[in-house]
């Protein structure tokens, strides 16, 4: 299924960037790709990172709080669990929210939507099942229109809400400082700095706790 999906999206992306599709057909294929991914992710079983802890928590969240998950994710589980005990229903609802936001974001901002969806697929495939991070990512995307309009309080509020699903969302605040024009020398200096840091391997010498704080070992 994964190979088929990849080559299907790759074909759509090729047709998109080659100009063989008009705008209306691109939008229809983008909608199809989003629905395909809802089925792809929503109907999976036994697949994905931390499958067992997530499944266990959903099945038992009404009477236990053993898993060290973020409060936003706990509340989401409780809401779904209050009307169904089917984990597949939870996964479908999760996928509908995630890919509805991706669809809206790509449709609005990407000059080549189908290429963007292909990049999204192969970038996130290895992280399939990271339920909390996916919600946090798409919530952060919802803050982008406010950031572009310099409505930082609204954008920041959304990022804070995203952090209730996964603490790593707080790293998105860096984007608030990128909403401006930069000179080429700035980009060049940052590239040199990153290269030096990578070659010096100074990151490897940092305490692991610094990364566990934002990464949250629950995933």
Could you please describe the fold and organization of this structure?
- The chain is mainly alpha-helical.
- The protein contains ten helices and no strands.
- The two termini are 25 Å apart.
- The model has no long low-confidence stretch (mean pLDDT 88).
Helical amount: 55-70%
For the largest beta-sheet, the strand count, sense and barrel status come to:
none
Q: Tell how many strands the DSSP assignment holds.
A: 0
Order of helices and strands: HHHHHHHHHH
Strand content: under 5%
Count every helix, treating DSSP H or I runs of 4 or more residues as helices: 10
> Average pLDDT, to the nearest integer?
88
Give a quick summary of the entry.
The protein is mainly α. Helix content is 67%, strand content 0%.
List its salient traits.
219 residues, mainly alpha, 67% helix, 0% strand
List the helices and strands and how they pair.
Layout: H1 2-17, H2 23-42, H3 51-60, H4 71-81, H5 87-109, H6 113-124, H7 131-148, H8 152-163, H9 184-200, H10 208-215
Helix pairs in contact: 1-6, 2-5, 5-7, 7-8
